[in-house]
User: What shape does this take?
Amino acid sequence: MSIQSRRFIQANGVVTRQIVGETVLVPVRSGAADLDFIYTSNETGTMIWECLDSQKNVGQIIETICREYDVPPEEAAKDTGDFLAALEAAGLVRPAQSEE
Assistant: This one.
């Protein structure tokens, strides 16, 4: 399955806050914030995070980024893939149900 057809969803137990133009993502595990995995994202990362709630696959998220920020598809694909890989490694996103 290509990365562009994959879908991710936000993991349960992630608290988000907007602070000075950035989104802070904090996983809550065993009733406490896991401070080892606090993640901040810029405006583009925030858009990707919000797209995860809309059932978009990675290809659709890339298209959204290209339209919104007028960047080449290759650059949007690399940045989106890198961002989602980092979020997945930190346990902040997981593959959508159909991929598990």
In short: The CA atoms of residues 26 and 35 lie 7 Å apart. DSSP finds three helices and six strands in the chain.
